[in-house]
Amino acid sequence: MAETSFRQYAPGSSRYLPIAEHGLIGDLRSVALVGSDGTIDWYCCPAFDSPSVFAAVLDAERGGAFELAAAVPARTKQFYFPDTNVLITRFFTEEGVGEVQDFMPVAGADERGAGEHCGEAGRHRLIRRVVCVRGTVPFLARIAPRFDYGAAPHTLRILGDTALFESPVQSLALTSTVTLEGDGADARADFKLGEGESAVFALDQVGGEVAPRGCARTEAERQFAATVAYWRRWLSQSRYRGRWREMVHRSALTLKLLTYAPTGAIVAAPTTSLPEQLGGERNWDYRYVWVRDAAFAVYALLRLGFTGEAEAFMRFLSTHISPGSGDGSGPLQIMYGIDGRTELPERELPHLEGHQGSAPVRVGNAAAGQLQLDIYGALIDSIYLYDKWAQPISSAHWDDVCHLVGWVCDHWDQPDEGVWETRGGRKDFLYSRLMCWVAIERAIRLANRRGLPADLPRWRQARDTIYRRIMDRGWSRRRGAFVQYEGGDVLDASLLMMPLAKFVAPTDPKWLSTLDALTEDLVSDSLVYRYDPQASPDGLRGDEGTFSICSFWYVEALVRAGRTDEARLAFEKMLTYANHLGLYAEEIGRTGEQQGNFPQAFTHLALISAAFNLDLALG
What we know:
By secondary structure, the protein is an alpha+beta fold. The strands form eight sheets. Strands 5, 6, 7, 8, 9, 10, 11, 12, 13, 14 and 15 form an eleven-stranded antiparallel beta sheet that branches.
């Protein structure tokens, strides 16, 4: 029998592809990570936050994978079909060249539709189309799902061209145009293609009204064309014509993949527990809707001319999130489930070893109960921009805004856990104060522009009080800089938002002094650390890499300070840290490796904003 697994016998961490060696496909409900070797090693079905069926990226042995590659030694290259989220992995062998085309048909994603659909509304289909483009290439496929994060056993039945994987919690059907064989509870296929020949694998979740259904070569071709057309039609809405357009559009396509079409939710990242440091404990589940991250994503997409995602997120807010009584963490949680649920209990999965042995693997997120005052500024700023660039908000939305601003006026001076979700206790974080100022200031602007009813005297008094508080207590004479929290001397990269949020003039002497201090303390070859955990303990062990959103904020701060040459060099350097497809994780390690959940909405939305403003400044 041929080898059972392409990675199974590799020693230690070499059983794992680096985080950056992956591409992303999706259908606006979930995504799959496809390694540069052709292996799908992360896939949750049918939704982003469903339990995984393939999770070899978190445990090479127990996680499960869908391996599909040349059966002989091959060089591989990976690229996106131009202007789409259809991923091509090419295999160059001595006898020929083959490729795997990976995509997920987008069915009923929005009112514009996706053209050709894959059938029933409940069908979630992942298609792998294998084509030999030159010579002959032998291929090997191994399909090894591991249900419920590898905790649920399953059985295999092969019925003609269909392999049925059945577990107590979920069932998958794999249909194939080549012969499938059983290998224990896994399925495999060995086949050889000549030039111009193809094979198709289609994976569906089945059960209820969704039965196994084949995917003939002609149907796969139609689905491929329809999926390409959907993504190109979506991208054609972009108004961006500036420099670095390919990177900007790849970031936009990535943000779109992180949207959950049924509700309009936008997840922070589609993965859980990819480590911020190998061997460290900073492993979190990001498959949820952070109010801050989603609001920033809406801002970035609006910048480019995509209004549909902003409209959908506004619907998510009005349908699933209503300002509560204001107890505990405030009228809004910092994060919600993609269906708007508020309970996101965090637990560890000790049976999974973690990426390259980096335990623990966590699902759920205990930070949902934290108080993070900055979310109100991010949210109301995005509502303000939506009203300005897309369409006027409704009277009901304005009532919600007034409720939130009233709460902020009463509670802005509380200590909180801050934007970085520290687990080391609450402090009077300056960034939280800054974004409370933004919340009130943008609401005042909106009320004035639209003539909407508001308690403007109260709002103005609170806004001005916050401004004075930041200037008085947030400034360190010793450091000659604004600092992380009141009365401290620690620097924090989140303060790069001060001129971006229009709190301080970008050429104000106090700000320029702060920018110089941040450059000296937190910047390393254009890469920016969030803060120094040694100087400001955050309640967690281990170090972390540089934070990519901060690196792009730094570019934008340099632009606004008139230092465009420095900004351009820093931006070009940041582009060299992207992976081979233009994707970024949350952080970048000491030797340039991607760290943390992947890909990260925060990073891509910040890239869009930095490119937009740098291009504007360059003229």
